[in-house]
Amino acid sequence: MEYVVAAVILLVVLVAGGIGLVVPRMRRRQLPPAETGGGTTTLEREPEAPSLQVPAEVDEGLPPLIEEKPAEPEAPALDKPEPTAGRLVRLRARLSRSQNIFGRGLLSVLSRDHLDEDAWEEIEDSLISADVGVEATQVIVARLRERVRVLGSRTVSEVREQLTEELVAALDPELDRSLKTTPHDGRPAVMLVVGVNGAGKTTTCGKIGRVLIADGRTVLFGAADTFRAAAADQIQTWGERVGAETVRGPEGGDPASVAFDAVKRGIDTGIDTVVIDTAGRLQNKVGLMDELGKVKRVVEKHGPVDETLLVLDATTGQNGLEQARVFTEVVDVTGVVLTKLDGTAKGGIVIAVQRKLGIPVKLVGLGEGPDDLAPFEPAAFVEALLGSDA
Ligand SMILES: Nc1nc2c(ncn2[C@@H]2O[C@H](COP(=O)(O)OP(=O)(O)OP(=O)(O)O)[C@@H](O)[C@H]2O)c(=O)[nH]1
To answer: Where do the record's region annotations for Disordered lie (predicted)?
Structure first.
């Protein structure tokens, strides 16, 4: 009996002890997790892994936990310059608008029944006022008079046709007007662009770059106009639009060194043509003209310059010719770009320029737009000069 009592007591004790051990554990499990901060320094604490699983209902409106990689900025679309072939014909309206008075004046004289001395004088005056130049006008009119006399030309269209032929002949259509832009073995072709202030050099460099790129060449600009920071920005903007790099130097820096670096870069990167813009300068500033000579000499350490283009503003008329002459002495100009022909009724200046300088007009500027530059074609030009109804 005693054994039974002892066994019951033992059992009760064991059961009570078991309950005492189990209940606190269960309670502890229901408690919120203990603060982990106490006792652990911030440095020692394991960083909490960010919860990537956000319940659907809270997800809305919250920024994503993992930020999406920003898309690579898209390269700006490059301009597609107009093809160069036939540009003069397309831009003809620009030219004939400003030449109308000239064409109409000639038409009214040519339509007279009889071309007397007064009529010939009027024809001469028309040509001179269109800036053809006195000397060239006299030659053209003398030849035309002779043809009219010998051939007995009667109708306006006959005389007009003969005048057209004489004007074209005065423009020396056989001259080589191609731009020398073909690269040499391992070296780009180099083009130097010179002229007085505001003639349109920087704009012309940009337009030429576009022409070359349209024709499938690679181009690099040298911003050797270090006087005017805006000029370097200007040419760089032209380049960015068509995908041409620009090499520039510090403002007021040595233009010869910028030009040298530009050609060097062109060689290193295998460019076809390097176009170098220079600062505008007046032909009577000896120091500046010497500087231009130096630019050319320094560039030629890499090899000869292929093309030296003189940019002339057609609206300056005969006055521009003296400026032009000095440039030809300093840098051996190989071609003329006559700009702003859209803004003058004196397109005859092309004839005067070629006669006076003995250098072919290779390009004409017919507006401020990026593609308003055309290869010069004597016949198309004379047609535009005389107007369709002359
Ligand atoms: N209408 C017309 N404007 C032109 C033509 N070519 C250039 N221009 C304008 O002439 C102005 C002068 O052009 P720029 O290219 O800055 O002249 P620049 O010779 O480089 O000037 P500098 O560096 O100061 O000597 C600009 O407003 C051009 O848009 C053209 O063929 N027709």
So the answer is: 31-56
